Structure formats: structure tokens, C-alpha cells
Amino acid sequence: xxxxxRIVVLVSILALFLWFFADLIFRNEMFAFxxxxxxxxxxxxxxxxxxxxxxxxxxxxxxxLGVPLAANSTxxxxxxxxxxxxxxxxxxxxxxxxxxxxxxxxxxxxYRLARHWGAGVQGAGVGAMSYAFCGNVIMxxxxxxxxxxxxWLPAALLAADHMLMNRSKRWAVALGIILGLIILGGDxxxxxxxxxxxxxxxxxxxxxxxxxxxxxxxxxxxxxxxxISVVVALVLxxxxxxxxxxxxxxxxxxxxxxxxxxxxxxxxxxxxxxGKRIADGLLVRSLNPERHRQQLYHFSVGPWRLSEYIxxxxxxxxxxxxxxxxxxxxxxGRVWVPSLYMGLLPFVLAIGGLRFGRVSGQExxxxxxxxxxxxxxxxxxxxxxxxxxxxxxxxxxxxxxxPPVGGLYWMLTVMLPGYVYFRYPAKLLIIAALALSMLSARxxxxxxxxxxxxxxxxxxxxxxxxxxxxxxxxxxxxxxCDWLAHVEPDMLFGPLDARGAxxxxxxxxxxxxxxxxxxxxxLRCASGGxxxxxSIAVILVAVDLSVANGWMVVGAPAxxxxxxxxxMAAAVNEAANRTTGGxxxxxxRKPSWVSSEWKExxxxxxxxxxxxxxxxxxxxxxNLIDRIPLSEVYGAAMPKDYKAVLEKxxxxxxxxxxxxxxxxxxxxxxxYLPRIWLGRTKNGERLGADEELIRYTTPGQSCRxxxxxxxxxxxxxxxxxxxxxxxxxxxxxxxxxxxETEGQGGSRILPMVRVNRAMRGxxxxxxxxxxxxxxxxxxxxxxxxxxxAGWSVLLIALVVLIARHFRNRKEx
Length: 812
Fold this sequence. Notes:
Blueprint lengths: L1 H25 L2 E3 L3 H18 L6 E2 L6 E2 L22 H26 L4 H12 L2 H4 L5 H23 L2 H16 L3 H17 L17 H15 L1 H13 L23 H10 L8 H4 L48 H9 L9 H16 L5 H12 L13 H8 L13 H21 L3 H23 L1 H7 L14 H30 L4 H18 L5 E3 L1 H4 L4 H14 L6 E3 L16 H11 L6 H4 L13 H8 L11 E4 L2 E4 L7 E6 L11 E3 L6 E7 L3 E8 L3 E5 L7 E7 L6 E3 L2 E3 L3 E6 L2 E9 L2 H34 L1
Parallel strand pairs: 5-6
Antiparallel strand pairs: 1-4, 2-3, 6-7, 8-9, 8-12, 10-11, 11-17, 12-16, 13-14, 13-17, 15-16
């Protein structure tokens, strides 16, 4: 029977996988939604191109005067899984296989975790399907670094359980390796969560004899074992952590106006008003939407969305046509995933398996994970938000305290060191999804081998309620359409399709009714001793998930990405050559600019249309495909000094763009700053740190770039008198300037000074000079040495263990 069950589980998972990704596998399509299309595709392509050109991808010269590339965790430059891009496939297939492999990895690791925690083959298979193909995980194909974290999360908990229960140093090392992979994959927040979950697990299950601290050596105590894991993880991922830490201190996430948690006191806060500043910061009195402090709470999950766990797509499908009627709720914010659905039967089994007493061990721990993760995902909807809503309902004035205050996510940002640098509360629902899946896996065998009257009764009641809801929606369909007519159109997907939204409500309640009735019947058959019923139920879960969530994975013809330079890119190159005479240039594009027609119209091909339009107008990060540098790009992080330049009212703002794209046309900027130019101080004094310079030109003096690469820039400068030479590139640690002066022989390294808040300036004497700017990141070299040593030791240990294993087998 186990063999038959394994076949059923394997076939169900593979069938689900093919159902979700069939268009991308068999029709040569590419992921078309959100960041999968316009962020990770061009970013990973740039990383691969740098490797193919024989360079370590350390610097990206195409955004914001240049930004670190390896230090950007979303680029995941050093993640071992990126070896998929080294295989002899096209980039498109390597990118798709990279995503596919992590979906399957999520299914495999969750299956192994469920089996380890006592679930049977079928229960573990259902847990794997409900986790890997639930809305909270499968939608991360559009944010692949979070998919990597979700794929490794079950493996991390498996290693943590072995480590704590067996007091094993080997499993501590294994946990450290998995944490290192998660960090290198671009999701340090999940690694942080694993550490918190491990501590919670050790404390919660501390009544277990094997986890007590008494009568255990110091090296076998869980704090020491967790410390070993953390050290191993940091050593293996140092090549990513060290440059990222350096960048974090210099990017907008590190900019602090008021304290964001109990560990921060800004340097400009005086002793007398420090207490007030801290109170203002921790209570979030005023939130600037352009600052990271408010972005912390973007993609908060409204409590009303919990109904999506039972009724698939009841909130309306988000794309390709706008059917998401839930936006009629005033407090509904940005949508992280369009549905939370994980399969009705797994969810019902998980809810039935919730146990909150300490005596139940793992089940109570998983139960509390579900509750805490869901509460934390509410984010912006904290305790004060509830008070605000109540006051607004009765007409009372609001208190002057930010809505997130009092919520669990707010407490995490306030109490946990470094947690404030993360954002998006909805990401915590991946933890809830895993906990729910494991509870359903543990409850599967019990439901199908023992009489479960309560479960069957609940399913029957749910079926009846769903059928009543279906009839009610049919009866009130016209009134619902009139009510939904006031929903604002979506900027991308256009006006709300009210009829389609009502149809989604109908299909949600109808599907829940059908699945409930089928599950009720299968459980009733299983109570009579039928082993076949549980196998059919596994297939039912797969069909349920495919019907409910299959629409989320959308593609567009891969040729939309592979076509040559767009018409706009060609026009930009022509205008730039005419303006600069062949010198490097930058393009200005409004970051939030979208087609005005989209808001007014709907289209089933809107995602493909948006790709064509964004590629043509160089929407970030599509400029990376055409290798066209943009002067203003907002993403995961931006250097805070350059952000200050963009926000500043003065002559420097906007001068970094040679060409601007406005309303589908190219505009030449006559007041642009060249890539390299001569400057002088306003008062004529010597150059000091962080000076604002004025550009000047003098006959007989010139500066011209002769080579511009990602990590090396060369320029020739002719000066008749001592002058300041400015390279309009980002001032950042690691850039080194070597100067060769005609008639002096040899070369010398000169220090650069930050000018105009973000650029590189240097004082040079009169004469002919050849300038060589090269990127030599000390943070990368330091981190790389640590990681290289760590991986070398790990590989040597692995070879020794394998050799010892074969030697022992030979002796036996």
C-alpha cells in the first residue's frame, strides 16, 4: 500500500507542477507577472553576462550613477543554485528551470519534514502539495528570492529539529549550511525567521527530556548549537553578507529620521529631546510614504482576507482583467499574493489539528506559529488601527498615533535588532502556510483511519453554507454589480469587471461546496475501511489546488524579451550620440510612469501589452537588457546620498540625465552634467569633503572618457591650470583612482572626495593626465576569503565522511 501511495503522491505532485507551468514548458512562454518579468529577468541576465565576460558581478553602472551589484541581495550573485545559468541552455530556459527547481524543492523539503514529524506517505504528500502550490508560495515565482527562502524553510526546520532533539553538532552544521544557502539566495529575512523559530521551538518543547539544559555539556546545549549554526551560516555567506552590510549602511534603508526601534538613537538627537524623539519614532506618529519607515508596512494583509483560506478567489482574480472587488474595502492595500488558498481539505484538517496546550508538543508549537504568523501579517492593521476604525465608526477624532502601533509586526520591528530593515508583513504568511500544511499532514492518517464524525459534520455544514451562499450571490448578482461599480480602476488592469467579480464569488462558493461534499463522501467511505478513499482524496486535493490556483502562473511569449533593442532605445542612442558626441550618457525616466490608457481599458493580453510598453520605454529594470543607464531607479535599495540629491531642489537635481523619455518621446536635456567634467567650488577655495561644485569650461582644457566598463573607467584630461575633475558616478567605497601624468613617468593612486553629495571628485595639477577608475571592493574580498575558507573546510569534511563511509562498508 505504501508503494501505491507513493505513486499516487508522486503523480499528483508532478501533475500539479505540469498544470501550473504547462504554458511555460510547452509553449515557450516566460513569466509575465510583476517582478518575475521586469525585475529578476533583466537583473539575472546582467549577472550572467558579467560572469560570461570573465568578471565577478560586483558593480551595476546602469542605475543611479552606479550601484553595487554583488551587495544587492536580490541579485543573489553567489548562490550555488545559480549554476543553473551555467548549463548549456538558453538564458530563458535557465531562468525558468531556476524557478521550477525551487517549486519542486519546496514540495520535496516539506514532504520530508512531514514524514519526519510522523505523517504517513499520503499525509506528507498532501502537506507538500498544500504548501508548495498554495497561493502564498506558488506566487513567489514572481519574487524568486522569496521562493528560494520558502523552498529551503522546511529543510531548515528539519535540521533544527534533529539538532535540538539529538543535541547534534553535525545537524547544527547542516542547519548553518541551509541558512547560508537562504542568505546567498537573497532572502536573509527567512534565515532570521528560522533563527527565531528555532529558539521558540527549543523553549516550547523544553519539557522534552532530550532538550533540557541540565545534565548536558555546554557544547550540547541548544544556545551553543544554534550559535554554531549561525557562525557556519555567516562564514559560508560572508561573501554576500559583508558587502550587503556595507551597502545597507549607505542606502535609504539605513536613513533614520527618528528611532525605529529600541536600539536606535540618531546622532543628531540631543540628550534633552532624545526621549521625545524615541517616543515619536516608536509610536510612528507621522509616516512619509517615500521613506522606508512606511514601506515596512506595505503589503499588509487585511483580516477580512482570511476568508480566502476557505473560498478560493472569493476576493476576485487580480489579472489579466481586473476582477478584484475587495478593493471596495477602504483599508485594503497593495496585494502581495492574490489568494491565500491552500486547498480546502488540508486547511480544514489543519484547523481541526490546532492544539494550544504545551502538553501536545509539536502540534501546539505549529498551532501557535499559525496564529502568530497570521497576526504579524496584518502589519499596518495593528491595535491602534482597530481603535481608529472604531473611532471613525462613531465619529470620534483619531488619536495621533500610527495605525501599526500595538500590532505584532510593529512589535517585531521595535523589539528585534535589525528586523526594521526588512519589510512587507505578508511574507510571514509563508510560515503560516508551512505550519498549516504540517498540521494537515499529521491529521491526514487520523482522518482516514479513524471515525471522524466532527470533521464530516463540519464539511457537511460548510457545503450547505456554501450552497446557500451560491444561491444568495445568484439572487443578488445585479445589486452586487451596481455596488461594485464604484470600485476604482486599477492602474495596470483597468476598470473593475463587476460581472467577472461576481462570477468569481460564485465559483468560490460553488467550488467549496463541491469539494466539501466530495471530501465528506470520501471520509464516510474511509470509515467503512476503504483504503482507496484516502488515495482518491489525495487526487481531490491536487484537482482542488489546480482549479483554484492554476491561473496565478501567467506567461507571455518569450520573444518579447529576446527581441533586439526597442525603438525607444534606438532613439535614445541616436539622441545621445548627437548630444554628447559618443560619450557615455544617462537617461531620465519617471519611475512610476505607466501608460494612461491602461486605467481606462481592459484586455486579456494586458500583461503582454505591459511588457511591450515597459520594454519600449525602458521601465526599470528593462533598461538592463538594452544596457542603457537610467539616472533614477527605485528598487530594493538606493544609496541614501543619491536619494538626497534626487529630492533636493537645486541645479544638481535632474542634471544627471542627458536624455529624458517623456510621453513616448525622447527629449534632450541641454543643462545636463557630462559623465566627466571640470568643476570649481562656489567660493574658489580648495576642495573639501562633500562640496557642491559648479561646472565650468575653459578653452585649452578638456576631459573625455576613453573607456567605460562596469568596473573600470578610463579618461583623458588636459589641464592648463590645477582643476577639479568630477566623474558623475556614485561615490562608493572600493573605487580607486590611478593617475598617469605625461612627463612624470609611472602612475600614482590619488584619493577621491565626494562632491555634489554623490559624485567622485579629485584635484589634479596642470598637464596631461590619464585617469583609471577601478573597482576593488575590500568588503567583497574580505567576505570572499572567509566564505572560500568555510566552503573549502566543508568540502574537505564531506570528502572525509564519504571516504570513511565507503571504508566502513568495505570492512563490513
